[in-house]
Specification:
The protein has strands spanning 11-13, 17-21, 39-45, 50-54, 57-62, 68-73, 76-81, 86-91, 95-101, 105-110, 113-118, 123-129, 134-139, 147-154, 159-166, 176-183, 188-196, 200-207. The chain is mostly beta strands. Strands 1-2-3-4 form a four-stranded antiparallel beta sheet, with no helix packed on it. A four-stranded antiparallel beta sheet has the order 5-6-7-8, with no helix packed on it. Strands 9-10-11-12 form a four-stranded antiparallel beta sheet, with no helix packed on it. Strand 10 (105-110) and strand 11 form a beta hairpin.
């Protein structure tokens, strides 16, 4: 349907739309929809309408109901509607990972801390702090599913990864439930998490050459 000759960045699909990031100088049939020259993220809905967004976007996630898109930039956390309206902006830099927890809470990792931002009251607070380890990825869906994190302890040539589970409950995550003493092999370069059928956790490991 759409093509980009120089694909970079990411693509995320929601219930009602798809968000595609592309380099600003990429040749694409999305270009005819660019209202701004520096558009680098495009929301395409089921009616084939394209909404261009501008910024240095690093990652994005759709809300469970598909009506809101949270994106991280080099210095902000921005929430957009599925028709390209900016709903709110939270000044924050150094975001490692973002995720939704329910329809109103956004989780984001900065350094050793996991933060929760509530869209309704516009308040943000720390719900978990790792001691000396960076929170590198988040998997969360909705209550009562738990929140899973990977913590990264960076070494000179590789990293050690830890898996942490936080109890879920209602629309607000509870305190730390338990830390799973799982040491993934110390020869890996990366680690990511994901739910399968919203029930089973899958850990993907990227090995060093």
């Amino acid at each position: 349907i759409y093509s980009v000759d120089k694909p970079v960045g990411f693509m995320v699909a929601g219930n009602n739309a798809v968000a595609i990031s592309a380099s600003r100088d990429a040749d694409s049939n999305l270009a005819q929809h660019q209202d701004e020259d520096d558009a680098s993220l495009f929301i395409i809905n089921l009616s084939n309408h394209v909404y261009p967004l501008s910024g240095d976007f690093t990652q994005a996630r759709w809300s469970p109901d598909g009506t809101k898109l949270v994106v991280s930039t080099l210095g902000d956390l921005v929430i957009w509607s599925d028709v390209g309206h900016e709903l709110t902006t939270l000044p924050v830099s150094g975001i490692n990972s973002v995720s939704w927890y329910g329809k109103e809470n956004v989780l984001y990792a900065v350094g050793t801390n996991l933060w929760s931002f509530n869209l309704a009251n516009q308040e943000s607070h720390i719900i978990f702090s790792a001691q000396g380890k960076n929170v590198s990825s988040i998997v969360a869906e909705h209550s009562p599913l738990p929140i899973f994190l990977t913590l990264e302890n960076q070494g000179q040539h590789s990293s050690l990864f830890y898996l942490v589970r936080i109890a879920g409950g209602h629309e607000t995550p509870s305190s730390l439930e338990e830390q799973l003493e799982v040491f993934l092999p110390n020869t890996i370069n990366g680690c990511s998490l994901g739910y399968t059928n919203f029930s089973s956790l899958v850990v993907t490991v990227i090995s060093a050459p």
